[in-house]
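Form 12-C: Joint structure prediction
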Amino acid sequence: MKPSIHIGFLAITLSTACDVPTSPAPLPPRSACALVAVHSDYRSSSVSLLTATGERCAPDIIDSGSRAPGLLTALSGDIACTSNFFSGLSPGLPEIALLDRYPAGVLTTIDPNDPNDARVTEQTQLSQGFAGNPQDLLSPFDGLAIVSRLQRAPTSAPAHPAGSDLLLLGPPPSNAAPRAILGTLSLDALAAPGFDPMPVRLAATSDHLWVGLAHLSPDFAVAGPGRIARLDRPTPATDIAAWRATPNLEAIDLPGLENCTGLSPSPDGAGVWVVCSGSFRRGSAQSGRSGLAFISNDGAVHAILSAASIADTIPGPISPLGFTLAAIDAHHAVVVALGDLVSGAPDRALLVRRPDNTTPPPSTAPGSVHVLHQSPPFELGDAVYLAPTRTLLLADASPSRPALLRFSDLELPITSTDLTVSIPPPVRLEDTSNTGLPPRNICVFRTL
Amino acid sequence: MAHPPPFGLRLSRPDRGPSEHAWKGVAVGALCVFLMWPVAAHAETPQPDTENLTRIAAPERDADASIDRSRLERDAIPDLGRLLEEEPGLRVTRLGGLGAFATVSIRGSTAEQVLVLLDGIPLNGADGAPVDLSQIPLGPLAAIDIHRGFLPARYGVPAMGGALVLRTRASDSPEVAADLGAGSFSTVATRLTAGLAGFSLHLDFLGTAGDFRYHDDAGTLWTSNDDTTRTRRNNDLQRFSGLLRGRLDLTPTLQLQLLHLTTLSDRGLPGLGVHPTTTSTFALRRHVSGVHTTLTTGQTTTSLTLHHAFSDTEVNDLLGEIGPPSAASTLASNTPGATWTLRHQVPGDDVEIDGEIHAAWRHESVAGTRIPDNGRHLLTVGLSGRAALTAPRLAFHIDSQLLAAPGDNTLGDASRFITTWRPTPNHRLAFTATRSFRLPSLHERFGDTGLVLGNPDLVPERSHGLELGWQTRFATATPAGDLDIRFQLQVFSRWHDDLIQFLQNAQNIARPENIASAFIAGAETELAIALDTWLETRLTAAWLHTRDTSNIAARRGRALPLRPALTVGTHVVFKPLELLTFSLDLHTMTSNYLDAANLVSTAPRALLGATIAARIDDFRVTLSVMNALDNRVADLAGFPLPGLSAFANLRWEPTR
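Section 2 - Result
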């Protein structure tokens, strides 16, 4: 035997001997969990809790197999966590709200503090006889929850809400019982003829609620003018019936854009960012109707940055923007430019800065654009920005190596307009689920 | 071995002319050598029926298993899905009860990898969708041949998962029969069969309301406050089929066979159990035609089959109960084709050789989608050869085909090699190696439904497999009658690669990719015991081990969904009197996963059925109970299955 082989064998032996299985790091207490991450391959789902920095806190507390399947599975493959705080039976205490979107249409709330497993505190069927496809939930105060329902009910559905609306939920009458349905708030007045409003994401600022609208034709084939809805934010003192009747509902148009579903309130409270993806049926013309906008609290549109204008500042093709949106502040937001499987163009996470302007007309070109990260097409998912720790978490649904990407040092690219600023690579957090399912959604359920 | 021609008829008429006598001699010789060898050498063995003999003894057998006419007629109103699932290695997935959409998987395959052929004519649509078993009428069928994992080259089309070959009934002598059945869920079934001088007509109607009761948990499994019991709505089916087939002997050596099948069906689309629909419908019109000619000259037989399959489907969902509301969406699949076969036999004392050359053309086109209207041409050339030695008792069989899709620049090859050894006349050991593929369908390559985009760069799915089979038979006379025991065991393993899966992105767009691979191993066994004519028992079991070997974190190392590890069937037919028959069927299945991540598993399932049939003169009365244990475990999430149900049938069949 050659000496080199001896050495190699010894090295392998030693390395094997040293490869003592390490027990996983102890999990922090549930009270340290602040984020919820939904992992899914669109067929089954698993939900994990994370710390405020995205570390593993309580993996896989509930999944599609947590109960034996009935007519449907316990959780389907189309689960969304909600982007806003929610309180259920115990006012003031955070719970996790999961929306089983399509086809189930079910709201499931979970007590995150149960030390052993996820305790489901209630479940409510939101669709009421049709596949309502609930998209988001917002709780302006304890005791009221607002759910956006994308799809219109067929005319044959029971005499319940028409869908493509906001569903209002009161507190459940008792533990484990479905929530009381208070009624609906129609958005039909905002839709152009031939289109449904199709509300998607919800956001709240101090005085207003904001609703992203897909505003598509009923068959999803054609997109109407890009617009979002704004209405008064109710408070515990508000008469809900009166508010339903006169919510001061108004449309804010975003000329040139379509399918404006993504909303993210600026952490500084100055307004909301909106992302518009354009109509997928437009094919290559989709990017022409896609873009990013910023609207201040008074309803003034300060920036309409088309996907083309964003792409002009960075190398690579013009790509439509996806639904992903994370507001950094009133001047910065993170979006994902969609890749293309045919051309091989990657998904790109972009940090976009809008020019400073305080009054209309809105800016039409970005101040700067930094490419934070790129992955093969179809892989980048949701993003959330944690302002207190200045941390950005981005879901990377790589089939073979899914991970949460953590960007911890965005200070320089945020403060600098120099496009040559190097951005440190993100930390890959690959242990947020034991199932291997890729992360899709990340939400904050507890004050950081 | 004599392969049945595409229309399932004999290659030539019996007792006609010298050349046919010669042909018969060859055929009988081949039959003796390849099929009846174990039996003929055993003088005291009772003569079994040809169907079972083929299944038990043939090394180059036409099919791995067959469901014969007696089993097709066993139940009052037969359910093809139920019959297929009694066969080891087959798994049927249903969206509802009798008449609901159902597909079949063979040895862990996908439904798309399974072909269904009617007398050799492929029924799979040009878009690549699997064949809906509920649209197949059983009245006109003589038998269903099951090919596991490979389809011989002479069919002109490869089948990576396997195939069901439906053989229609021949009417060589005058016959007439009529059936009237009825049962649970307002089900009505009628059949009429008439045959004369080689021509036969079969009419088949099935209607059902499908209005079974089911438990609706509202999709909220953690609360029962909102649970209800519902009646399945909009689940009705009306299906009519007519089959005309005939045979003309133009000359003593030239034969012409004709076939035409029309199927018209309308059904409701009930939707998910939690969101039932009221008006959505699905309509199918299918026409299958074929002309088959056979010319026999000496040891050479040439056959040519021209066929055409057309299907037109229409989905009406004007209210948007299932998807986005839209006007009726239609899909028309058009597949003309031709298959040519030249076969030559060289008989000999020590070695017998049988060779075939095959060529086939098929054109697939789909209208009504964004698939290019000109479709694609598929060209196949194949070669089959068999050689049998008398000492040692060895036989070799090779079957190979090459398929090209010139427009797609795609090429694929499938081949099978079988070595058979018979140490004694009643034992047979066979080793089989296979290699096969599945061409990406037109839908997968070019489809565009907005949210599902085709991928022109797809390559064929590929598979390699090994199989070891052992068959044995024991026959003896007992005081209670002749005892016939047959046993067979197959052990197999298969490696699948480049499997096509739809990947969905965060924007809900799905696109097929060659990303998956899998390893499948299994064993299938069958023990059949017959005691004279009054007791038949059949025990079947199948074990399936599946492992996803894809480089996908959520799947790697996990079991493939919808593939139960163990299925066991018990089938007993008891005939205490010549005119009275009892049968009992128990089919059990272990739990299986519903998802690729193996998070969701179903409960084990046991389905019990019982039938009693009595013949009185020209009439036969059949009473059947299905799912007697009222088991409600569904095949797929969202689609409840019916529980206990009962059916009755009255047949009038005047004796000839």
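Section 3 - Comments
Chain A touches chain B through 69 residues (CB under 8 Å). The CA atoms of residues 141 and 249 of chain A lie 19 Å apart.
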